[in-house]
């Protein structure tokens, strides 16, 4: 299992942007990576996912067109660019990784397919 570390959370105004980053001491290259979030009193929600190849991504309907997930193999990070933020985006954001896989366009949105989880980073959208 990977030890994942998230960074980049903080306070943003509605309409603003934040960039979250997920990294590990081990290579992320052979792991599908997902970003999930959980707001107080709400169930965990999967928001964005990227294949090992980086060639396929998936987004929750609630964030489609506003969030962009990407891999930076050189930096060993998976980043989540968050634009046009809304108060409803306020949550703790977690990155998660699958077990080791080959390089492919496979991507899953099911939380049960992710075996390693970070500690989370708080995102607050408020004026």
Key structural traits:
mainly beta, 43% strand, 0% helix, globular, single chain
Outline: globular
Gyration radius over CA: 13 Å
Mean pLDDT: 97
Q: Give the biggest beta sheet.
A: 7 strands, mixed
Task: Give unreliable regions as ranges.
Answer: none
Question: Mind explaining what this structure looks like?
Answer:
With 127 residues, this protein is mainly β. The chain is built from no helices and 11 strands. Strands 2, 4, 5, 6, 9, 10 and 11 form a 7-stranded mixed beta sheet that branches. A 4-stranded antiparallel beta sheet has the order 1-3-8-7, with no helix packed on it. A hairpin with a 6-residue loop joins strand 4 and strand 5. The chain is globular.
Any chance you could write out the topology, listing elements then pairs?
Blueprint: E1 4-7, E2 10-12, E3 18-24, E4 33-38, E5 45-50, E6 57-59, E7 67-72, E8 77-82, E9 91-97, E10 116-117, E11 121-125
Parallel strand pairs: 2-11
Antiparallel strand pairs: 1-3, 3-8, 4-5, 4-9, 5-6, 7-8, 9-10, 9-11
What's the short version?
This protein has 127 residues and is mainly β. It is built from no helices and eleven strands. It has strands at residues 4-7, 10-12, 18-24, 33-38, 45-50, 57-59, 67-72, 77-82, 91-97, 116-117, 121-125.
């Amino acid at each position: 299992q990977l030890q994942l570390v998230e960074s980049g959370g903080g306070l943003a105004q509605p309409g603003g942007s934040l960039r979250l980053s997920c990294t590990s001491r081990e290579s992320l290259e052979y792991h599908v990576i997902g970003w999930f979030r959980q707001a107080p009193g709400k169930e965990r929600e999967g928001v964005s996912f990227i294949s090992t190849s980086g060639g396929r991504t998936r987004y929750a309907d609630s964030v489609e067109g506003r969030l962009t997930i990407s891999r930076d193999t050189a930096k060993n990070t998976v980043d989540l660019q968050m634009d046009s933020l809304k108060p409803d985006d306020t949550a703790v954001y977690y990155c998660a990784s699958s077990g080791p896989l080959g390089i492919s366009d496979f991507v899953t949105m099911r939380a049960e397919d992710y075996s390693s989880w970070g500690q989370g980073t708080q995102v607050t959208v408020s004026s």
